[in-house]
Amino acid sequence: AQSVTQPDIHITVSEGASLELRCNYSYGATPYLFWYVQSPGQGLQLLLKYFSGDTLVQGIKGFEAEFKRSQSSFNLRKPSVHWSDAAEYFCAVGALDRGSTLGRLYFGRGTQLTVWP
Amino acid sequence: NAGVTQTPKFRVLKTGQSMTLLCAQDMNHEYMYWYRQDPGMGLRLIHYSVGEGTTAKGEVPDGYNVSRLKKQNFLLGLESAAPSQTSVYFCASSYGPYRGSSYEQYFGPGTRLTVT
Fold first, then answer.
1. How confident is the model at residue A99 (pLDDT cuts 50, 70, 90)?
2. Average pLDDT along chain B
3. Contact (CB, 8 A) for A2 and A25
4. CA separation for the pair A76, B29 (Å, rounded)
5. How many CA atoms lie within 13 A of A109 on its CB side?
6. Which of the four pLDDT bands, split at 50, 70 and 90, describes residue B33?
7. Is A90 exposed, middle or buried (0-12, 13-18, 19+ CB in 10 A)?
8. Is B103 in contact with A43 (Cβ distance < 8 A)?
9. Mean of the per-residue pLDDT values for chain A?
10. What residues of chain B lie within 8 A of the CB of A102, using their CB?
11. What burial class does residue B52 get, using C-beta atoms within 10 Å of its C-beta: 0-12 exposed, 13-18 middle, 19+ buried?
12. Which of A2, A84, B4, B5 has the largest count of CB atoms under 10 Å?
């Protein structure tokens, strides 16, 4: 069954430091992978996505993620974090719903990012 | 383009009361979804719709009903609210049924519901 694991519930980094948020997925076929960000009191905004091709994908706000099939991972990175990056980050895998042809997202439980000034 | 909008933004209900949450999208998307978000649980799919007049159950459908009478609107109903339904509810929509595109979802700002 498809699932997404975000091992870190909460991460704290200093402003200007580099960031890596981990995501592991379980899915039998080629996955569609996403990272979403949720600022306090807001909905989810798409940061980046991987469908196929180059395994290093660039997103908005200076984020990037690398798909590693051998490790079933899709980690999110940013070289220098800004205070405005403080938010909750969700990794998701797109997969067919069981017994149907519907494509849907399966979300991880999220990683809360705190940025120290 | 407003994208995905949700009404209301906040609501407090007493146990046993009913209410309807409205989601509207102006992107001509085929697919629409209702999720609930609880601390530490991520987003869980309640119901979804693959087109006007069609709906289906997600992971946590009990206690909820939905309707999609118009392509741009997706309603979530609580017939008899319970404290366990206290949550933040998000609506989303996506293109579909094209390969890959149905997964890229656009989210509304959420409705915070408290059931006392």
1. low
2. 91
3. yes
4. 28
5. 10
6. very high
7. buried
8. no
9. 91
10. 31, 48, 50, 56, 102
11. middle
12. B4
Q: How far apart are CA B59 and CA B112, in angstroms?
A: 20
Average pLDDT (B8-30) is: 95
For A104, the closest of B45, B90, B100 (CB atoms) is B45
Closest-CA residue in chain B for A97? Answer: B58
Instruction: Judge whether A80 and A63 are in contact, CB under 8 Å.
Output: no
When pLDDT is cut at 50, 70 and 90, the band that residue B97 belongs to is low
**Beta carbons of B40 and A46 less than 8 Å apart:** no
Q: What residue of B is the nearest CA neighbor of A96?
A: B103
User: Which residues 52-111 in chain A show a CB within 8 A of chain B?
Assistant: 90, 94, 100-105, 107-110
> pLDDT, tens digit, for every residue of A80-94?
999 999 999 999 998
Q: Which of A1-5, A81-85, B6-10 has the lowest mean pLDDT?
A: A1-5
CB contact under 8 A, A44 and B90: yes
Residue from the list B31, B43, B104 with its beta carbon closest to the beta carbon of A107: B43
Q: What is the pLDDT, as a whole number, of residue B47?
A: 95
Q: Which residues pair with A80 in a beta bridge?
A: none
Q: Hey, what's the torsion of the CAs at B45, B46, B51, B53, to 10 degrees?
A: 170
Dig out the tokens for B25 from the structure.
Answer: 């999208």
